[in-house]
Automatic annotation (TrEMBL):
This is Adenylyl-sulfate kinase. The keyword Ribosomal protein does not apply. CDD domains: APSK (cd02027), CysN_NoDQ_III (cd04095). NCBIfam families: apsK (TIGR00455), PRK03846.1 (NF003013). InterPro entries: APS, APS_kinase_dom, CysN_NoDQ_III, GTP-eEF1A_C, P-loop_NTPase, Transl_B-barrel_sf, Transl_elong_EF1A/Init_IF2_C. The gene is cysC. Its EC number is 2.7.1.25. Gene3D superfamilies: P-loop containing nucleotide triphosphate hydrolases, Translation factors. One of its GO terms (molecular function) is ATP binding. The lineage of its organism: Bacteria, Pseudomonadati, Pseudomonadota, Gammaproteobacteria, Lysobacterales. Pathway: Sulfur metabolism; hydrogen sulfide biosynthesis; sulfite from sulfate: step 2/3. It comes from Stenotrophomonas nitritireducens. It comes from the Bacteria.
Length: 363
């Protein structure tokens, strides 16, 4: 492509329009510039052009979208799981993204399409991508610069995948945020409290639900408006279609985080008691809330203590192979690295732990 002074241009994804006033090269003004040249463009209008934005010819702009069909080459030892949050980098633009669905895996030798719920190291899949904000793009077959991307792990900052955008998925193009006059602050004000989520995480049998129940009783006695989301209870309704594979665990936490956010928007103090074994999903949940609204509470006990409290016999069944993918036995639990509150539930009294959480909730 070429650009000249006087050309009509559009800045994407904001769709702001202007005209090129001047093209500046290393040695001064130029009549025009072509692809590959390093130049500075001066626009006729004062509009915001941020890092990662695309300036295109007004008559032939790229598309703008936040949902895509894409081919993904997975390059990490840990599997790609739908719903897990990553950073997507395309050109100089970086946005939050997740794989919403793996349509199929591709056998690189035969090109056969194989059913898959995850992608392992060096596997190629055809996936749907969901971004938190729209980007300017063109299909990779037409424009490598605006169609090729990488995925970055949000915990380690390591590159975990490379991919190509095929086309935009337009199913959500007519869905917009609706402005509401009564907002979270108004709902909280009428309740006289600060809404937040208290996220209890730990092994099965650690005492999460017991502590959360005691905390809610104390908050309720003080006149607080609360709701307790318990892992077992939620699986009877909202998440009754989910199992205990890593993929289903990711979706389990995604749904609960969205429900908790709605409840915080309603002005409630929300208690969430879930094993939530993966750091990435707990971080994903945290990022849905404003600064200070998400309080991670690690209910910490040694595995042998959790097993000794196993009134339901779950650990015994898991060790016998009757319950696959059981956290702590054949599925990992990733300990929080910096929780807001660390409860050592094998040595502290229940009342003392509940009081610590209440003080944190009311501060």
């Amino acid at each position: 492509g070429r650009v000249s002074a006087g050309d009509a241009v559009v800045v994407l994804p904001s769709a702001r329009r202007s005209t090129v006033r001047e093209v500046l090269g290393p040695d001064g003004p130029l009549d025009a510039a072509a692809a590959g040249q390093a130049v500075t463009l001066t626009l006729a209008d004062e509009i915001d052009v941020s890092r990662g934005d695309v300036i295109a010819a007004a008559g032939d702009p790229p598309e703008v979208a936040d949902q895509f069909a894409a081919h993904v080459l997975w390059m990490d030892d840990a599997a790609l799981l739908p719903g897990r949050p990553y950073w997507l980098q395309i050109g100089s633009r970086t946005v939050a993204a997740s794989v919403s669905e793996i349509k199929h895996r591709i056998d690189v030798n035969t090109q056969d399409k194989l059913a898959a719920k995850r992608l392992e190291l060096n596997e190629v899949g055809y996936c749907n991508l969901s971004l938190d904000e729209p980007i300017a793009f063109e299909p990779y077959a037409r424009n490598r610069a605006l169609g090729g991307f990488i995925l970055i792990d949000r915990q380690s900052n390591a590159t975990v995948a490379a991919g190509t955008l095929d086309f935009a998925l337009r199913r959500a193009g007519n869905v917009h945020w609706q402005h509401l006059d009564v907002d979270k602050a108004a709902r909280a004000r009428i309740k006289g409290q600060t809404p937040r989520v208290l996220w209890f995480t730990g092994l099965s049998g650690a005492g999460k639900s017991t502590i959360a129940n005691q905390v809610e009783k104390r908050l309720h006695a003080r006149g607080c408006h609360t709701f307790l989301l318990d892992g077992d209870n939620v699986r009877h309704g909202l998440n009754r279609d989910l199992g205990f594979t890593d993929e289903d665990r990711v979706e389990n936490i995604r749904r609960v985080a969205e429900v908790a956010k709605l409840m915080v928007d309603a002005g409630l103090v929300v208690l969430v008691s879930f094993i939530s074994p993966f750091r990435a999903e707990r971080q994903m949940a945290r990022e849905r809330f404003a600064e200070g609204e998400f309080v991670e509470i690690f209910v910490d006990v040694p595995l042998e203590v959790a097993e000794s409290r196993d009134v339901k016999g779950l650990y015994r069944k898991a060790r016998a192979g009757q319950i696959p993918n059981f956290t702590g036995i054949d599925s990992p639990y990733e300990r929080p690295e910096a929780p807001e509150l660390h409860l050592y539930a094998d040595g502290e009294a229940l009342d003392a732990m509940a009081d610590q959480v209440v003080r944190l909730a009311l501060r």
